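User: Last request for today: this protein with tryptophanyl-5'AMP, please.
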Amino acid sequence: MNKKKILTGLQPTGTIHIGNYIGAIKQMVKYQDEFDSYIFVADLHAITVPQDPKTLSSKVKSLLALYLACGIDPNKNTIFIQSENEYHANISWLLECNTYYGELSRMTQFKDKSLKNINFTSGLLTYPVLMASDILAYDINYVPVGGDQKQHVELARDIAERFNKKYGLTFTIPEPLIPEEGAKIMDLIDPTKKMSKSSENQKGVINLLDDKETIRKKIMGATTDSDMTIKYDKENKPGISNLINIYKVFTNKTTEEIEQEFKGSNYGEFKKEVAEVVINEITKIQEKYNQILNSDEIDKVLNKGIEKSRQEAKEKYELMKKRMGFGR
Ligand code: TYM
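Assistant: Here's the final one, the structure of the complex with tryptophanyl-5'AMP:
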């Protein structure tokens, strides 16, 4: 029997943080033995907001090196750059013409981002359709993402179901795969907000390429509360609950085990341990990252990945065109 398929993508916008790592990459590493896995760099999504042409390609390369350094195995994953596969944008157009403006304008991320800048591009509106294309092109079953992308995967489902109904069975219906603990890693300074690349205060964001001391300082400076007990309570103790979640993901311990372990400890002692486990894992990633970045491994992996992804996406695109009645 064929293995089920998973796929995810990350935008190459600067360095990625532990929220991205936990929400997407760590899940892909966890499932890569079980599923036929696809991971790509979503550089076409990145240009929905302005990008500097001078640095875009180095950001793409850096993200690819991070994928490999985090444990994405090139023998188990099809790894590619979205913009090198023209079928994603081609499929996207066909899907856009089967998606309603109302659906797109209701997307939470679009509403948030378009409110921040009234001069937004139409790409920011149609972005979830391109994401649907990334997924539907490969008959993906599961999409490992953080909670913020759930709505976009649900839209991909709606578009696929609509297309199948209208033109005949063409797409597999995908499901989001959201990690229990790390669905939403929160900002360390404002733990009621998700950790985000675009956060104004970078003290609340732990980047995978931050050095040890920076990580330690950020965690030691995390906002907590005045209650002094290490107990999971998202409503009343969002800062401590977020640190417990981070500690959980990096140690595989349960909340109960952690609460027991730190019974009687103060916040400073707990934070020190959180910093230790995070630094330990990230340092290993950084060592591999530096080796990979300076080797020809990335090119080799991409050459293999792009061939397979183009072949599969082309077949899906041709099938869609046939179903829709294109041709001479
Ligand atoms: P992006 O680049 O914004 O984020 C990459 C991944 O990180 C997750 N994430 C988080 N998870 C937990 N806590 C957080 N604080 C946090 N912040 C971000 C995101 O949910 C995401 O999984 N549209 C996507 C990229 C994309 C894609 C796709 C994903 C394009 N096509 C097809 C899956 C399938 C995005 O902008 O992710």
